[in-house]
Amino acid sequence: MDAISVIRTKRDRGELSDEQIDWVIDAYTRGEVADEQMSALAMAILLNGMNRREIARWTAAMIASGERMDFSSLSRPTADKHSTGGVGDKITLPLAPLVAACGAAVPQLSGRGLGHTGGTLDKLESIPGWRALLSNEEMLSVLDGTGAVICAAGDGLAPADKKLYALRDVTGTVEAIPLIASSIMSKKIAEGTGSLVLDVKVGTGAFMKTLEDARELASTMVGLGTDHGVKTVALLTDMSIPLGLTAGNALEVRESVEVLAGGGPADVVELTIALAREMLDAAGVKDADPAKALADGSAMDVWRRMITAQGGDPDAELPVAREQHVIKAPASGVLTRLDAYDIGVAAWRLGAGRARKEDPVQAGAGIEMHAKPGDTVREGQPLLTLHTDTPERFAYALEAVAGSYDIAAPGTDFKASPVVLE
Ligand code: URA
């Protein structure tokens, strides 16, 4: 077998055989297939697609490239959630302790932000002392002791995906449904969760811009999970406007703690509870009431214990950016659009995200939104506050938000899109 013949098969719109797939994933993981060969193959897959059999085999080969975790020693059923990525998407932070407070165990392997989308680990690292990197033993011990753990995937889990994802990121080959589905599901299946809820984002701020593409991605991932014995369900949720009123690391932790304290923005609370219900249902936990666990403080108790178990101080002051710039409403009226992609790009340019994997992020950088679509605004009132430690970034962020919102005449009828679409 050789890489060139595998590339030619897909370049010429052929089907990759099981043997070709097993060989190329294994040889790439071992360094025998070069990055430039794998990037040519990834581009051929992006352009010509893969059928269900090829996607299933590709996923199985990526799982087989590393170790599989086992949570069978836990006394509770396991449930995990994965979001395909968005702007202001801090849902994992309140969701993991909430579902644990309701009786399931939540092993939440999370990622870092890249480009305009935020990453759960970057957000949590704004809590002084908190550690994302845990050994498998530490992960199991936090999970067993508190009911929830949020941490980085260890090096041993789906190493083929680790290499391939980094390569796709710099070769314009991220947005391919077969590659996204196999990337996400190989990690989730290797992680060993019993059930999985997928939050597939749709809209300007998401990888999937249309409902049709999001449906295809969701059904591909549900099929992969089900075939591997993981109870998998998917919700399609709106990412045309940012979630909540903040985008940025420490800003989003603060908002998540408000939700755990029984407050917080309505859209964040609604999606957190909707996903919690799906996770508990998939895990077979009956008679739990996530809304009650948020209101009575039991989810907050799990949050505090989980943060402490990972070295963080839940009472510590969160970092605040050194400089702020307020954007005021240019007219009175009804806010009818606030674009998730533009807000995500602006937060990223302010320092909340990174351009390259190894770049540091600023804990305090990001954007506060003072109004959401449907709200009435007065001319001159604050609309957005930009936060950064490096004020020379304001100009780039202002460029990104310049066309990000529309204000219609006072009294205009406006119906916001639902948070959960399907
Ligand atoms: N998240 C992943 O883990 N992989 C992808 O390909 C896209 C989003």
From TrEMBL:
EC number: 2.4.2.4
InterPro entries in alphabetical order: Glycosyl_Trfase_fam3, Glycosyl_Trfase_fam3_N_dom, Glycosyl_Trfase_fam3_N_dom_sf, Nuc_phospho_transferase, PYNP-like_C_sf, PYNP_C, Pyrmidine_PPas_bac/euk, Pyrmidine_PPase_CS
Keyword Glycosyltransferase attributed: yes
Catalytic activity: thymidine + phosphate = 2-deoxy-alpha-D-ribose 1-phosphate + thymine
A GO term for molecular function: thymidine phosphorylase activity
Domain (Pyrimidine nucleoside phosphorylase C-terminal) ranges: 334-408
SUPFAM superfamilies linked to this entry: Nucleoside phosphorylase/phosphoribosyltransferase catalytic domain, Nucleoside phosphorylase/phosphoribosyltransferase N-terminal domain, Pyrimidine nucleoside phosphorylase C-terminal domain
GO terms under cellular component: cytosol
A Pfam short name: Glycos_trans_3N
Coiled-coil ranges (or none): none
Subunit structure as annotated in this protein's UniProt entry: Homodimer.
Role description: The enzymes which catalyze the reversible phosphorolysis of pyrimidine nucleosides are involved in the degradation of these compounds and in their utilization as carbon and energy sources, or in the rescue of pyrimidine bases for nucleotide synthesis.
UniProt family annotation: Belongs to the thymidine/pyrimidine-nucleoside phosphorylase family.
The protein's name in its UniProt record: Thymidine phosphorylase
Upper taxonomic lineage: Bacteria, Bacillati, Actinomycetota, Actinomycetes, Kitasatosporales
